[in-house]
Amino acid sequence: MGAPKQKWTPEEEAALRAGVEKYGPGKWRAIQKDSKFGPCLTSRSNVDLKDKWRNMSVSANGLGSSRERGKPLALMPPPGMLTLMDDALAIDPLATMAPADVKGDGADISSDRKSLGPRYDDMVLEAVLGLKEPYG
Amino acid sequence: MGAPKQKWTPEEEAALRAGVEKYGPGKWRAIQKDSKFGPCLTSRSNVDLKDKWRNMSVSANGLGSSRERGKPLALMPPPGMLTLMDDALAIDPLATMAPADVKGDGADISSDRKSLGPRYDDMVLEAVLGLKEPYG
DNA sequence: CACTAGGGTTAGGGTTCT
DNA sequence: TAGAACCCTAACCCTAGT
């Protein structure tokens, strides 16, 4: 099948956040077509963006675990999205990822990453891109 | 408490195999709701089916050579155990299910596909033929 | 017809129990 | 230590509504 499962890379997440910063949540198509961060999301559909944002919003929610919690808690967009558009524009997708492999294998960087738990790579990337992380 | 650990019976395993033969792997919900073998799996969730299939696939995997390793080798029924539809039909005495949808039970779902989604026929064929590597 | 929102399902890593 | 059964949830699908 096409893709066994394409995990989101930190670059893509950053691009999505930048897109939401600029257009606001719900403007998935516009985000995807934006010339700034769009290139980072060529392998993602507008629906993918929507789904990912939903997942991010959920996890950003302070939730212990449905394992021992009730949990009707739910969704709501940004936790602490204080990043400005200027910062978003500062993102240079081409600087962090090869422009060559647009399609067949966009999962490049973290495709074979299996590490668990918090990885500092995310934080580093966020820092490099000038974005802030939604959850501590 | 909620889950005393319910071991899978041979009947359930047979029903699962029959379901995979019919719908292809990955169509857990469809398998579970099938009027023919579904009744055998009423106490199993679609996720349970998925998990069980995974376990079966793993154990069916050859583990002789210690030199071969590296790939996930996703799904595919055991090469040695080729339960055919006939066997599948033989497994369930409950085949006398509700007369409700007795008819279009055979090829219903896969017959009127819009052209999207994976052709499970291929996968079944590969499985039966013992081909490997669902995805390169 | 294209897009979005939201519910539903699957895939795969992780955990628990035996 | 290994394997089976079950949990968690990101990623993906389906469909109604606009």
Automatic annotation (TrEMBL), chains A, B:
Mind listing the UniProt keywords for this protein, alphabetically?
Chromosome, Coiled coil, DNA-binding, Nucleus
Q: Which domain of life is it from?
A: Eukaryota
List residues of the HTH myb-type domain. Answer: 1-56
Q: Does the keyword Nuclease apply?
A: no
Q: Which residues form the Myb-like domain?
A: 5-57
Main localization, broad class: nucleus
* Protein name per its UniProtKB record: MYB transcription factor
